[in-house]
Request: fold
Amino acid sequence: MVRFDGVDYNCTVLLDGELVGNHVGSFLPFEMVLPPPVHTSPRVLEVVINPPPAELIGPLYNGTTPIYGVDQCLENRLFPFWKSRLNLWDFAPKMWQAGIWRNVSLLIRPRQMPRLAQLPFWIETKTVPPYDSRQPAELNMSAELHGGGGAVVEARWSVSCESDQSAPGLNLSTRHGSNTTTIGASGVLPEARLWWPNGYGEQHLYRLRVELWVSGQLVDAGEVAFGVRELSLIHI
Reply:
């Protein structure tokens, strides 16, 4: 099995020239099952990056009817609104990037064992004021499982701060019965380092790692980076 954590934005995967699958979506991890080998020769895994459709990018360059939203941003028609207040960073230059932008992994998983879904994690963070100090943060985490085969699963949850090694982390362990499709854990992260928007503070990032254990054997694992931040929409 091959796992892609991010391909921008449309790709076709081939093995020895044969189609394995297609995927659309820059930020959505995905997995594809590779067919078993029929010979002992080296195998070639290809990832073809498909270009954006001409009807989308054409108006950005030839002066035809604009696509409002995309076109306005790329041509800087809303220049004052698309810039950071500190360094005038333009997050949407007039260039269309494409390619593999995150990790690619080859995986071997035991048959009939539980595994994490392709987009496995949901993390809810809840912070307490004052937001400019290192206050505890509540974490509610969940993940979806596929398979299982009637096995009892132990999930080991580990949270650590990537941007500040001195920050306290969080380690939890939960047990789940056979045929479980969703697992979860909750805990309090002490002295949480908050994620701030660009120009307002540091963008501290944490990493959650989830391991699935069955009868003392590690059968799957997954990781995701996240920031601790609570947002609310207030109508005035």
The chain is about 5% helix and 40% strand. The two ends are 51 Å apart (CA to CA). Residues 8 and 99 are 5 Å apart (CA to CA).
